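Try it yourself: sequence plus NDP, in.
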Amino acid sequence: MNGLAGRVALVTGGGRGIGRAIALGLAADGANVAVNYRRDADAARETVEAIKKLGVRAEGYEADVTDFAQCEAMAELVLADFGFVDILVNNAGNASRGQSVKSTDPAEVHKLFDTHAFGAWAMSKVVIPSMREQPRGDIVMISSATTVQLPANSAPYNMAKAALEALASTLAKEERRNGIHVNVVAPGLVDTEMGRRLVKGAMGVEDIRTMDTTAPFGHVCTPEEIADAVRWVVSDAASYVTNQRIGVDGGAF
Ligand code: NDP
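Structure, out:
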């Protein structure tokens, strides 16, 4: 794939895991990339360097997406550095602790909602004015198979991702007239730090790759397979696609 030359992507949580693969994938297709991170500056720096080796521009930006002022400040810096943003990938996220509603601390519900739903809302709000000025805009929400499965002991995550998908569908209707496509990419289990922690906590699995034999298509999904769906949905090949939820879960759910 290619065809993103001249476009500018901002990927939240782009320093590591799925976000890193998305940032590198969009760069491989020619986009300049702003990489957001919250704490892991080393990972973000390494990702920025890897992107630059692909011949496009990349910069790292520290911001916590749960804080609206930090989202605004980051958008201002990115716009000053790159001129505009026409691809936003709301990927930043964290998992819940796997407890029942009865046992969950209220702070965990607020934290998950703030990261997945409020953060995506805030980042969309601050980049939309710039995106509206471009011939095409794309906002991609990284959700989860959880919104279909709605497993027990995951209420904070289930609720937060459901809200994220509600935001996507609402925004798609609001922004279509402005040339902005809004879509959801929803992974199942993916081999990242979060995925490894999830299977260890929920199933006692020490090595996620031991799940390859029972996983769809003979392997646990890679971050690059999620990135490929994002690369497609923001490309010219998806010029008439908006308000869609693309499950990348091997049909497991
Ligand atoms: P990782 O734990 O590997 O990475 C999480 C990323 O999110 C990090 O880059 C982290 O940045 C960033 N982040 C977390 N909180 C914030 C915040 N408040 N502000 C800015 N950045 C933040 O997770 P994955 O790569 O696995 O997950 C990426 C997305 O994919 C998430 O939305 C997740 O819910 C979703 N997903 C993952 C699945 C999986 O099995 N792995 C399955 C389904 C969906 P830093 O390191 O700097 O803190």
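One thing you can check immediately is this: The chain has a mean pLDDT of 97.
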